[in-house]
Amino acid sequence: MHGSKLALHVWFWAAYLMATHSNGISAMQLWKQLGLGSYKSAWLLAAKLRRAMVGPERNPLSGLVEIDETTINYRTRNDPPAGGPGRCHEGKLPITGAVEIEGLGPGRIRLAHVRDYSADSLHAFIETTTALGTVARTDGRSAYPGAPGVRHEPHVIGPMAAHIVLPWIHRVFSNLERWALGVYHSPRRKHLQSYLDEFVFRFNRRRTRHAAFRSLLGIGMRANPVTYKMLTSPEATG
């Protein structure tokens, strides 16, 4: 809210909609629903709220955690969805994800836009998202062994489909792809991490949407001010 010309009630309505809307809400939808003066105002409002969706004190994933990689289509400058099927990186962005297993189902998740699937990138993701002693269940990718602080449990996929061995992270990836395409028509490359953070925030609070609204306000109150330059600059990758 720092330096904003928008009325306080607009911020509260926008935060409520972004936190509780069943499928998420785009800047275009915010612009129309809140009657804002311009699309730019709506985009900046949504971008600032996304920055408040990562709590600085959030706990790392622990216990048994499924970890895998995927790619996601991104929009080009002229806005058509880019990329095609398969694991080719042209028109696609590499993502690493992790899901904490609770009983027989998924708990919390983490997602990160990474530079590549090298050991450096994957180990950094594991180190920053999991607690010491976590059991990291992965496929047989050679970059995973040696990740610090975890007990590695590799599964060589072979003829078996990956979604059988790592069912929950693949369900997360499937939901992410549908969400990104349905709400944002594929996200922009330079802001991908913010969109991933929004998906993580919503998924981790999927059973408590009204609590998600309070959580978003609480994180926003503690967060440092975000400038226009910070919002419009390309975001770092892992």
Automatic annotation (TrEMBL):
Pfam families: DDE_Tnp_IS1595. Residues 60-204 form the ISXO2-like transposase domain. SMART domains: DDE_Tnp_IS1595. This is ISXO2-like transposase domain-containing protein. It comes from marine sediment metagenome. The lineage of its organism: unclassified sequences, metagenomes, ecological metagenomes.
